[in-house]
From TrEMBL:
Signal peptide: none annotated. This is Flavin reductase like domain-containing protein. Keywords: Flavoprotein. Its cofactor is FMN. SMART domains: Flavin_Reduct. Pfam families: Flavin_Reduct. InterPro entries: Flavin_Rdtase-like_dom, Flavoredoxin, Split_barrel_FMN-bd. Residues 16-163 form the Flavin reductase like domain. Gene3D superfamilies: Electron Transport, Fmn-binding Protein, Chain A.
Length: 194
């Protein structure tokens, strides 16, 4: 794989990578096994240190790997990764290594060691799980602290998304159901009324 164009994102800006509700890819690894899955429900919950919540069903292979390792990655796919995102959300990683089966190039996270997807993605976050026995026992919601983040500067720089005609391939995607996605990109600057 060629060298990365991704640049570090200040942790105080890491939550901005998912605050607009994109569909994400969740990567995980534990004891020589790895997985990648799609998730439509993730959100920031704290600013500093940055913490997130994400829904990962208790019965999934990804959840098993995360609980075993205590870490995971969140990769934010762009428009060119719609087919990959749809595909990894349709089959279980228990049956086969989806990363290998789909020939997904990954880099290894320097903070957590999780596989991270940069090709076709706009950004990624390395996360350390925050065990929450009461919540996790009853619900599928996981909490985590973001320990590292990076983004392609052509679409995210100076702590902000920069969607434009030149970077449409990296516009984030939003799952509408049944394999149908919308892309972000229609940027409108608000004006203060007071």
């Amino acid at each position: 794989m060629s060298s990365s164009v991704f640049q570090p994102v200040l942790l105080k800006h890491a939550n901005r990578l998912i605050n607009h509700g994109p569909t994400v890819l969740v990567t995980s690894a534990h004891e020589g096994k790895r997985n990648i899955m799609a998730a439509a429900w993730s959100m920031p919950v704290e600013f500093e240190p940055p913490r997130i919540a994400i829904v990962i069903d208790k019965t999934t292979f990804t959840r098993e790997l995360i609980e075993g390792s205590g870490v995971f990655g969140i990769c934010i796919p762009g428009a060119t990764a719609i087919d990959l995102t749809y595909s990894v959300g349709r089959v279980s990683g228990r049956d086969h290594d989806k990363v290998s089966a789909l020939d997904v190039p990954v880099v290894v996270g320097s903070e957590t060691g999780v596989p991270l997807v940069e090709s076709g993605c706009a950004a990624w976050l390395e996360c350390r799980r925050i065990p929450e026995k009461h919540t996790e026992g009853a619900y599928d919601t996981c909490f985590a602290e973001v320990v590292s983040a990076a983004a392609d500067p052509s679409v995210f720089s100076n702590g902000r998304w920069q969607f434009n005609d030149q970077n449409q391939a990296l516009h984030t995607i939003h799952h509408l159901g049944g394999g149908v996605f919308a892309t972000a990109g229609n940027i409108v600057q608000g004006k203060a009324l007071l």
